[in-house]
Specification:
This protein has 502 residues and is α/β, with parallel strands linked by helices. It is built from twelve helices and 19 strands. It has one domain: Alkaline Phosphatase, subunit A. The chain is 25% helix and 15% strand.
Length: 502
C-alpha cells in the first residue's frame, strides 16, 4: 500500500502563532486535515445520534471507526458566526460577526440589534494561513459566507485552492464563483460536484500534507433532492406511524451528505492515507424546524431536534448543540464516545497542535486543543466555561449564554428574565431553575457580563421606535426594506430535478 511520509487529518477548522511544545512532531508525522462542515445539520439528524428514519451508513461508519462527541457546540446559532469562529479560533463576538451576513432585523422591536461585521477581516490569521505557514497545501470547497466581495474570498484568506460554490442544490442552479474552469457534469447534484472537487484535491496532494475544508450548502433550505432518494423517503414516511419524522426531501438531502462523506473517505483510502488522516464531521448550527418568516402551505416543517429544545437561531440546545465525529486511527480509539463539552473554535488549536505549527502571536485564540480528549475520551479540558452571544432576533430573542459544568444560563437581552438549566438532568431545558438557585443565577450572569466586556461584544440598545403592533415585522439588511411583500410572492421551490424541469 502507498505510504507517503506524513499523517493526514480530516476535520472541520484550524490556526497559527505560538508553537505547541507538549507534543513535538517529526516531519514524517505531520497529519493531513479534512474538515467536513455541514450546513444546518441538527444534532439528532443522523443515525449514530439516534435518527432511525434517515439512512446514513457512511457517517455512522465514521463514528464506529472514530470518536463521537455528545456535547459539542457550534460557536454560533447561525452560519456566519460559526464559520468566523472556525477560521479565526476566536469567539466571533471579538470580531463582530454575530449574525449571518448581511442579516435581517426587526426595526420596531423592543431593542435595536447591533450591526454585524460584513466580512472576515483580512488581518485575522485564519486556520488556512496558519497551516499553509506550517507547509500545508490548503483547499476550500463549498459555501463561504464570510464576505461577498472577492477581496474577502478564501483565496485571500490562506487557501491555495478555492472553489466557492453559490446557489441551491439542484442541477443547473449552482456555480463556482469567479471560475469558468470548474463546472459540474450535466444533471449533477451539488454535493456530488463538491465530492468530485474534493477527490481531485486529495489525489493531487497525496504526497503533501494538506488541509481541506469541505463546506456543502446541504442541508440548508430551500429543500431539494434528487428524485430517487426523495421518492424513497416519501414511501418510508407514508408507511411510518411516527409523525415527528423529518421532511422526506430533507431526509434525502441528509443522505446526499452521507454519500459525500462516503466519497471522501473512500478517496482517502484509495490513495493509501487512511491511517494518516484525521476526518472530522460537524455542523455550523442546530437544525432548522421552519423558516423564521414561514407561510403555511408554502414553507414546510423541516425537522425536529428532539430531545433538544428549539432550533437554529436560538441559544437553547437545539440551536447550538451539533454532531462532531472525529476519525484518526493513530490517536482516536474506534467506537469511543466523549462527553466533554467542546466548541467550534477548538478546531484551530487542535489542527495546529497535531501539525506542529504555531498559534498567532498577536491574535487571541479562545479555543483549546482537543488532543487530550481525542487520545482519551474521559479526559477533561482546562476550561472554565463556554460562552455564546447572539444579540439578534431570528428564531428567538437576542441573548447571551454560558455553560459551566452541567449548568447553563441564558440571559435574554430584551429585558426578559434569565433562564437556568441543569443539562445533566434536563437536556430538553424544560425546568427553569433561575428562581430556585438565585445565587448561582447571579454568579453566572456576572461571569457572562465580564466575558462580554473582555471580548468587546456588541450589545442591543433600547429602541425609541418600539411599536408593539409592528414588532413582528422583518426587514432586510441588504435592501433596507420590509420583507412582507417578498414573502407574499414566495412560492414553493422545486424539490426534485423532475419538478424543476417542468
Amino acid at each position: 500500500m502507498f505510504r507517503p511520509a506524513y499523517l493526514t487529518i480530516v476535520v472541520l477548522a484550524s490556526i497559527w502563532g505560538t508553537p505547541f511544545l507538549n507534543h513535538p512532531l517529526q516531519a514524517a508525522e505531520r497529519p493531513n486535515v479534512i474538515l467536513l462542515f455541514i450546513d444546518d445539520l441538527g444534532w439528532s439528524d443522523v443515525g449514530c445520534y439516534g435518527n432511525r428514519f434517515v439512512e446514513t451508513p457512511h457517517i455512522d461508519r465514521l463514528a464506529k471507526d472514530g470518536m463521537r462527541f455528545t456535547d459539542f457546540y457550534a460557536a454560533g446559532a447561525v452560519c456566519s458566526p460559526t464559520r468566523c469562529a472556525v477560521q479565526s479560533g476566536q469567539n466571533q463576538a471579538r470580531i463582530g460577526i454575530t449574525a449571518h451576513i448581511p442579516g435581517h432585523w426587526r426595526p420596531f422591536e423592543r431593542v435595536i440589534t447591533p450591526m454585524t461585521t460584513m466580512a472576515l477581516p483580512l488581518e485575522v490569521n485564519t486556520v488556512g494561513e496558519s497551516l499553509r505557514a506550517a507547509g500545508y497545501a490548503t483547499g476550500y470547497i463549498g459555501k463561504w459566507h464570510l464576505g461577498n466581495n472577492v477581496r474577502h474570498a478564501p483565496q485571500h484568506q490562506g487557501y491555495d485552492f478555492a472553489a466557492v460554490i453559490n446557489g441551491p442544490h439542484l442541477p443547473g442552479r449552482y456555480r463556482v464563483a469567479g471560475r469558468t474552469d470548474l463546472k459540474p457534469k450535466p444533471q449533477q447534484y451539488r454535493t456530488e460536484f463538491e465530492g468530485d472537487l474534493s477527490a481531485e484535491f486529495i489525489r493531487k496532494h497525496r504526497n503533501d500534507p494538506f488541509f481541506l475544508m469541505v463546506s456543502p450548502y446541504a442541508v440548508h433550505i430551500p429543500l431539494a433532492g434528487m428524485s430517487g432518494k426523495v421518492d424513497k423517503y416519501r414511501r418510508k414516511a407514508t408507511a411510518a406511524t411516527d409523525h415527528t419524522l423529518p421532511h422526506p426531501v430533507y431526509a434525502a438531502m441528509i443522505e446526499h451528505v452521507d454519500d459525500l462523506v462516503g466519497r471522501i473517505v473512500a478517496t482517502v483510502q484509495e490513495v493509501g492515507l487512511t491511517d494518516r488522516t484525521m476526518i472530522l464531521f460537524t455542523s455550523d448550527n442546530g437544525g432548522l424546524a421552519r423558516r423564521y418568516d414561514y407561510q403555511a402551505g408554502v414553507d414546510p416543517v423541516v425537522t425536529t431536534n428532539h430531545p433538544l429544545r428549539d432550533e437554529k437561531g436560538s441559544l437553547y440546545e437545539g440551536g447550538v448543540r451539533v454532531p462532531l465525529i472525529v476519525k484518526y486511527p493513530p490517536h482516536v480509539k474506534a467506537g469511543s464516545v466523549a462527553a466533554e463539552p467542546a466548541i467550534s473554535y477548538d478546531f484551530f488549536p487542535t489542527f495546529v497542535d497535531f501539525a506542529g505549527g504555531q498559534l498567532p502571536e498577536n491574535q487571541a485564540v479562545d479555543g483549546l486543543s482537543l488532543r487530550p480528549v481525542l487520545e482519551d475520551a474521559s479526559a477533561k479540558l482546562n476550561r472554565q466555561a463556554i460562552h455564546f452571544h447572539y444579540p439578534h432576533y431570528h428564531h428567538s430573542r437576542p441573548a447571551s449564554a454560558i455553560r459551566k459544568g452541567d449548568w447553563k444560563l441564558i440571559e435574554f437581552l430584551d429585558g426578559s428574565p434569565p433562564e437556568l438549566y441543569n443539562l445533566a438532568k434536563d437536556i430538553g431545558e424544560q425546568t427553569n431553575l433561575a428562581k430556585e438557585r438565585p445565587g448561582l443565577t447571579t454568579a453566572l450572569r456576572r461571569e457572562l457580563s465580564d466575558w462580554r466586556l473582555e471580548v468587546g461584544a456588541r450589545m442591543p440598545l433600547a429602541n425609541p421606535h418600539f411599536d408593539e403592533d409592528r414588532a413582528g415585522e422583518w426587514w432586510s439588511r441588504r435592501s433596507g426594506k420590509s420583507l412582507a411583500e417578498s414573502s407574499k410572492k414566495r412560492r414553493a421551490f422545486p424539490r426534485t430535478e423532475k419538478e424543476a424541469a417542468k
